[in-house]
Amino acid sequence: MTRISIIGAGFGALTAVRSLRKADKQVEITVIAPKSEFVYFPSLIWLPSGMRKGADLRINLDSFFRRNNVKFHAGGVTGLKQGGRVVVTDSGEIENDGLIIASGGRFIKKLPGIEHALTICEGIEATEQIAERINTMQGGTIAVGFGGNPKEPSAMRGGPMFEVLFGLDTLLRRQKRRDQFEIVFFTPGAEPGKRLGDKAVKGLLAEMKKRNIQTQLGHKMVRFDADKVVTEGAEFAADLILFMPGMTGPAWLEHTELPRSAGGMITADKHCKVAGFEHVYVAGDSGSYPGPDWAPKQAHMADLQAEAAAKNLLAGLQGQAAQETFKWELICIVDTLDKGIMVYRSDTRKFVFPSKLFHYAKRFFEWWYLRQYR
User: Where is 365: in which H helix or E strand?
Assistant: First the structure.
């Protein structure tokens, strides 16, 4: 029986499971991850307001794995052997005939004083800590920002921080506490949201101005202090720092011979195939793919890449050439708790459209997406 291993339990990994099982009912699938659970990261932004609880976003995958006849190996990956035919974990080794890496990336934590900042996309516990801090603050300055990976332009995640920014403003106004706080948005880029398109940049900055959110833009980060953000162009006091660092590949890559980009991601071609490795594919944040300069790192892209990777892996195992590619497509609803700003970009078109309906559309999509895993 053909054995396929999948590293990870996030968007790309689970989409790979569904794609493989849809195409082949007999192939043996093993998912390797620390826990048999899926966290729906796009809705973490709703935890500080109480719109969601952590338990709402943490999905136990045991039932999903049983329905799809998937083996689960609980363990953290530490390396690969035999050209990817063996996955080494802290709880044993798993052999395979084909491998899909969908383990996600990790945040770059090299900035001095980074321990003084909280990062929403580090998970439920980190977001609950943010919510607690906000709810107990009597006033002060909240600094919200994000950085990038200079060697991997796509390895940044600014969208959630725009949602945090606008959601905080909405929440504090609802609580009639907004006048007790100053909110400052900062980023090394002079045009925040540039990858979303020029219209998005203008729209985001206009929204900040309308909400009386101060900005510190275009200055390289120097450090964080416990009560201060310091850049090369300015420094300002901050009672709470919410920051999304740039991303790089998972730490275990350093113990493999997998090819890596300058930014530390696994180098793949347009078919998601890892160069120089037979039957090894990558999907999602841990990969570096040929694409446009606005190429996003987001769950939607991980899903599209995982579908292509799964189809190409099955074709390769049957002696056929990889033919499936994926579409570069940025789809983002920047939610503000009371409305949503739909941002779309592809090779052929782009648009930005705000509407209260998109807030409810985002909530509906969450239900629709999670139903397949509950």
Answer: helix 356-370
Low-confidence ranges of the chain (pLDDT < 50): none
* Residue 131 host element (H or E): helix 124-136
Q: How far, in Å, CA of 327 to CA of 342, rounded?
A: 19
Same fold for the pair 3-105+249-317 and 115-247: yes
Pair of tokens at residue 3: 């054995």
The domain covering 3-105+249-317 belongs, at the CATH homologous superfamily level, to FAD/NAD(P)-binding domain (3.50.50.60)
pLDDT tens string 294-318? 898 999 999 999 999 999 999 999 9
Domain-by-domain residue ranges, the chain?
3-105+249-317, 115-247
The pair of structure tokens assigned to 317 is: 């195992």
Token pair for 112? 């001095």
Dihedral-angle region of residue 67 (phi above 0 means left; psi in -120 to 50 means alpha; beta otherwise): alpha
In the prediction, which pLDDT does 108 show? 95
